Automatic annotation (TrEMBL):
Residues 145-375 form the Radical SAM core domain. Residues 5-121 form the MTTase N-terminal domain. This is tRNA-2-methylthio-N(6)-dimethylallyladenosine synthase. GO terms for cellular component: cytosol. [4Fe-4S] cluster 2 binds at residues 159, 163, 166. The gene is miaB.
Amino acid sequence: MTNEKLLYIETFGCQMNVSDSEKIASLLKGLGYSSTDDSSRADLIILNTCSVRAKAEEKVYGHLGSFKGLKRERKGLLLGVGGCVAQQEGERLLKKVPWLDLVFGTHNLHLLPEMVQAAERGERRAEVQFIDSDTRLDLFPAGETEGGVTRFVTVMQGCDNFCSYCIVPYVRGREISRRSADILAEIRGAVAAGVKEVTLLGQNVNSYGIKTEGEISFAELLRQVAAIDGLERIRFTTSHPKDISPELIACFAELPKLCGYIHLPAQAGSDAVLSRMNRGYTRQQYLGMVADLKGARPDIQITGDIIVGFPGETDEDFEQTLSLVEEVDYADLFTFIYSVRPGTKAAELPGAVSRKEKQQRFDRLQEMLRIMTRRRNESFVGTRQKVLVEGVSKRGDQLFGRTDGNRVVNFSADPSLVGKIAEVAITFGYQNSLLGELFHD
Ligand code: SAH
Ligand code: SF4
Ligand code: F3S
């Protein structure tokens, strides 16, 4: 085809952006763009950006800088920025980066084909207005329609929680739940195409449906998804502890397809810090939920997020975080050094923790985590795990998949097992994964 053009997308940040990038690729197919992994051959480069921490934002500027030369060399090459930095900066980004052609915000994906056509005619544009709910309901990113073993399905967008450190509510806008009928239809379609596992995706899936009249609850959504024939496994992410209902916890006991895994970010272990973070729960309440979850599913694997160095965090507060981490006994933890986000409430708070102190706390937590995850992974040695096989490893000599509890397992077996659940005997626990052997009776 003579007019085929190549699109290169680079995605930063969370799974929301990954999902949006799929949608962008599928929207631009309509203009004759097909995807490439090679930016030097692209006719259109899109950076789908994240601004959750300063480092993530800086990365974007670094990449924009590195494409400046390519823009000069390749006449007609177009460069666009989408996602959360685009939303935050809008027009300003066009001014700051003169070799940039288009900027589109988190609610403006649907305008992209028109904007790219305008850019092809030499017009530079930024579109970052938030759009109303009815239109948004029709614009949820739907996953690819072709195969794959496991798939993310967006169930909600935006966030109304305004945790005091977080930029997401400002760059993603108000929380909105997708119609359950649309979600179920997408999952049925995916299962018909061979998908075995879905992960329901949103900034805070636990509040799914609450604000929409006539919509079902998240727990009911899980039950209806679980009733879909041919679907083997369900996961969801992310959960906000303040919105975990007893009904949802009960799902872990009632629904065998619901995997024994939950990402439940605590962020901190001290009540004083949790309150300044505007998290809406206490340490005690969080630990209570963890106990209830373990009650419903004794082998549940819990992961979390922790921020160190939040304004005013004392040594004492940090010790409370360490003890919470120990008590919960996380299967894994994502740890972050607090990063000031201009425009958020926390940016106004006094009591900044010094860089050195933040780093020391971060290092201590990392060390604890290293020991915890290694110990956890070694504890699986000698057990038998059901592994949903996702594919052949990059080296080509092993299969990889995940246990019900979301641990990655590598093992040698025939590639015909891809897409199936294999019984695997665990033989070794690494830092970040497990090694196993296909189990033969
Ligand atoms: N909606 C999800 C994820 C939000 S961003 C949730 O609530 O769990 C992912 C993680 O980034 C957060 O959980 C938090 O731990 C971290 N984070 C967000 N803002 C941050 C900031 N300003 N500095 C450091 N870490 C931050
Ligand atoms: Fe940010 Fe809090 Fe919303 Fe998560 S729940 S996206 S941390 S404001
Ligand atoms: Fe980053 Fe935006 Fe996700 S700020 S974490 S890409 S919602």
